[in-house]
Amino acid sequence: QVQLVESGGGLVQPGGSLRLSCAASGYFFSVYDMKWYRQAPGKQRELVGGITSGGSRNYADSVKGRFTISRDNAKNTVYLQMNNLKPEDTAVYYCNVYTRRTDYWGQGTQVTVSS
């Protein structure tokens, strides 16, 4: 079955960096677009950005220029490099894939930006 497992979250000071990973299994990873979402306390889940099977990327305006999404098809893994983190980036981060007419989500990884 499709599984997504995020890792790499943690506590970081404002201005710091983190790299999140999402390991995928159970489907042909390289042919599917992948997305990152986040959900802050009391807020709706929002799209952070995505990467297509061909490597094209798009980002929410709030993270553009600070976050970078990449993928390693040999490792079935998608990454979210987050630089210059701000307190408002605090959230649970999820990776997502739509395949077999279903949205699949990982369990999420907590990112807390605080001094």
Quick tags:
seven-stranded mixed sheet, four-stranded antiparallel sheet, 0% helix, mainly beta
Q: What is the terminal-to-terminal distance? A: 40 Å
Tell me the radius of gyration. 13 Å
Strand content bin: over 45%
The tally of strands reads: 11
Query: What structural class do you assign from the helix and strand content?
Result: mainly beta
Q: Characterize the biggest β-sheet.
A: 7 strands, mixed
* Element-level helix/strand string: EEEEEEEEEEE
Helical residues, percent = under 10%
Total of helices? 0
Overall average residue pLDDT? 97
Poorly predicted parts: none
Q: Quick one: overall form?
A: globular
Give a written overview of the molecule.
- Strands 2, 4, 5, 6, 9, 10 and 11 form a 7-stranded mixed sheet that branches.
- With 115 residues, the chain is an all-beta fold.
- It has no helices and 11 strands.
- The chain is globular and about 40 Å long.
- The termini are far apart.
What is the fold's blueprint, element by element?
Layout: E1 3-7, E2 10-12, E3 18-25, E4 34-39, E5 46-51, E6 57-59, E7 67-72, E8 77-82, E9 91-99, E10 102-105, E11 109-113
Parallel strand pairs: 2-11
Antiparallel strand pairs: 1-3, 3-8, 4-5, 4-9, 5-6, 7-8, 9-10, 9-11
